[in-house]
Design brief:
This protein is α/β, with parallel strands linked by helices. It has 15 helices and 14 strands. The protein binds adenosine-5'-diphosphate. Adenosine-5'-diphosphate binds next to helix 10 and helix 12. Belongs to the acetokinase family.
Length: 402
């Protein structure tokens, strides 16, 4: 039997998330997370879905190499080791692929060099992604390693959506343009939404709202992305957990000139101390809703600003797409916060979408419609599965090579 397992690795700066899948039936064999790498209090939580057993390790894990070695040992304890002939490939999430990587790509030295060249536009993410790939290559040099880029789905955006209105020569010299992120999720969710509607992705126009800690919206026409809210970096667009999203760029000059803040301070302010957290001190939507229920005005205003921005993007993407078949909510907030979904769609009935309060209140893991049958535009909750999408793309590529 040909190898059918794919290990998916999502390497962050101090964490590694992983899943081992069997692509014969897309089932999960194991999943886990290593957190706080490089600290004394590192933790690995591993679940073997084959047995249902969960194991936890607490104690220092010095670096990504040590983290991956521990993951490999855990997998081996369940008979799922990385040396297994059944492992077909390792799929890596890579955040920034620039304009160069439009598809999942088998990693070689040139690919590594290009991901490295993109570090200036993805300083928080690409270095960790690279470390993960290099570590995995050292562990299994003979195995195909596939990079799946968060930006790839957005490379179909027309120049009119991808360009900023600045001097073209400067933009080209410094590769300043809108790349978009969360692409694996937008691709998966737009396709799953078409399936939920019982139609082919090519026939369906969808607005996807990926609302997690990071958040982005995309306009998908017939399965291809035509606009998205994140830009050169994941800072642009919606109000997020700790990121500001859109703002007048002159705010930055003002804070530097009048506030005397350094570029690094402003960077930290906008990426880590803004968004919901900056507005009300909390970035978890559950906590914000709890405070709103208690009559907290600061939390209410943060919620209102979040919803106002979301609505503006929904409206903009109606204009970009011309015809919209569905709005799909996904990720932590989108999948769980019924109040956010209801508020985002409230008042848009004239454009076609509506939310049925009863359907919206039902919780579940399956893709589902929350609009009444009479709505001209469907509204859906479609749980995202970036790991499965990375595994699928990896397996499709490695299968093609054979
Ligand atoms: P990321 O992958 O960007 O870290 P997730 O997609 O996991 O984020 O989303 C995390 C966010 O989801 C949390 O910060 C929290 O605000 C929100 N969330 C999770 N569960 C709920 C819930 N039951 N109700 C409201 N919000 C929730």
């Amino acid at each position: 039997m040909s190898p059918s397992r794919v290990l998916v690795l999502n390497s962050g700066s101090s964490s590694v998330k992983y899943q081992l899948l069997d692509m014969r039936d897309s089932s999960r064999l194991a999943t886990g997370l290593v957190e706080r790498i490089g600290e004394q209090t590192s933790r690995l939580r591993h679940t073997a879905l084959t047995t249902g057993e969960t194991r936890e390790h607490n104690g220092p894990i010095a670096d990504h190499q040590a983290a991956l070695k521990t993951v490999a040992e855990e997998l081996a304890r369940d008979g799922l080791g990385l040396d297994s002939p059944e492992l077909a490939a390792i799929g890596h999430r890579v955040v920034h692929g620039g304009m160069f990587f439009t598809e999942p790509t088998v990693v070689d030295d040139d690919v590594l060099a290009e991901i490295e060249r993109l570090i200036p536009v993805a300083p928080l993410h690409n270095p960790a992604n690279l470390t993960g790939i290099r570590t995995a290559m050292a562990l299994r040099p003979d195995l195909p390693q596939v990079a799946v880029f968060d930006t790839a789905f957005h490379t179909t955006m027309p120049e009119s959506a991808a360009r900023y209105a600045i001097d073209t020569r400067i933009a080209d010299r410094y590769r300043v343009r809108r790349y978009g992120f969360h692409g694996t999720s937008h691709a998966y969710v737009s396709r799953a939404t078409a399936k939920l509607l019982g139609r082919a992705p090519e026939d369906v126009n969808v607005i996807v709202l990926h609302l997690g800690n990071g958040a982005s919206a995309s306009a998908v026409r017939g399965g291809r992305c035509v606009d998205t809210s994140m830009g050169l970096t994941p800072l642009e667009g919606l109000v997020m957990g700790t990121r500001s999203g859109d703002l007048d760029p002159a705010v930055i000059f003002h804070l530097a000139r009048v506030g005397g803040m350094s570029m690094d301070e402003i960077d930290t302010l906008l990426n880590k101390r803004s968004g919901l957290f900056g507005l009300c001190g909390d970035n978890d939507m559950r906590e914000i809703q709890r405070r709103i229920d208690e009559g907290d005005e600061e939390a209410q205003l943060a919620f209102d600003i979040y919803i106002h921005r979301l609505k503006k993007y929904i409206g903009a993407y109606f204009a970009v797409l011309g015809r919209v078949d569905a709005i799909a909510f996904t990720a932590g907030v989108g999948e769980n916060a019924a109040a956010v979904r209801a508020a985002a769609v409230a008042g848009l009935e004239g454009l076609g979408p509506a939310v049925d309060d009863g359907l919206n209140a039902v919780r579940g893991d399956a893709p589902r419609l929350i609009s009444p049958a009479s709505a001209r535009v469907a509204v859906a909750v479609v749980p995202t599965d970036e790991e499965l999408e990375i595994a699928r793309q990896t397996y499709a590529l490695v299968g093609k090579d054979k």
